[in-house]
Amino acid sequence: MSATLGADFLPLLEHCRSLSSLDLSHFYCYPEDLPPALQAYPIVAASLSHLNILNNSSGEGYKSHELLAITSACKNLLQLLATLLSHATVIELCAALPFLEELVLDVCHNGASMELLNAKCPRLKSLTLGKFHGICRGIDSRHGIVQCSVLESLCIKNSADLTDSGLIAISLGCLKLTKFEVHGCKRITEMGIRKLASNLRKTLIDVKISCCKHLNAVCSLRALGPIQDLIKRLQIDCVWVSVQELQGEDTSLKKKCEFHNSGNGNRFSSMSWEKLHYLSLWIPVSQLLIPLTLVGLEDCPALEEIQLKIEGDVKSLIFKV
After folding, report:
1. Is the Cβ–Cβ distance between 71 and 77 less than 8 Å?
2. Which residue ranges run through the membrane (predicted)?
3. How many Cβ atoms sit within 10 Å of the Cβ of residue 90?
């Protein structure tokens, strides 16, 4: 290892003076190496508009002072992807990046605050947060993400205190959301997702629901009822229930569809996913896809692409021609 901090980056910064995008997510380095290298070449650092230091291959995140030094040098960033080792001062970080449009932050320890984010980054359109507390404090909250009124894309991962009330507050404050992702949030339910979808009916067209304790595949599909005629991209990585369970849960839903169908003989208008062109599903090995038809996913006239994630021991499968 070089005795000079940042020595590994110096040849790159010296010979690529017009560098505008830098992805270090798969480059092995120590977090303390990058700040001095960027400070040594301020013109190059200032020319960067995209910086990815997420999932640093050394296995460590960036300490607050290291990340603040990086953002101070790269003051014209439009996109920042980063992992933090401790409770980074998020507001100080954002204050150094007034032009920021996309922010991805993963915190190795909970507790970072989202207060005043909108005031510091008024152009922020895309936000991904991992392991954050205090993203939203409830329906009546005027703090945190709900103030980010220009957000178009929001992804929340492994938030221990996100609730249905928080989802509703987000949907009332972030009225321009076209894309919403939620992963590993154990306290949200079908009701919260349904309220969010209903409030964002005019804009929301891209949804991903993944590994949330109270949201299996059936609940997730039901929750998206308010936008199922508008949604274009849908990814559900959830527990896929059996045919028997699904038939039991959806008896009332089936009756509702029959009622809508009996009037004029048309297809189930309440069950059609008219604009859906991309669908991604997670299913266990040997599970039938018959349940899709029971929740109306057979009526997807615009569908162009399906991706299936199969999990389990495929050796147990017997293929017949």
Report:
1. yes
2. none
3. 24
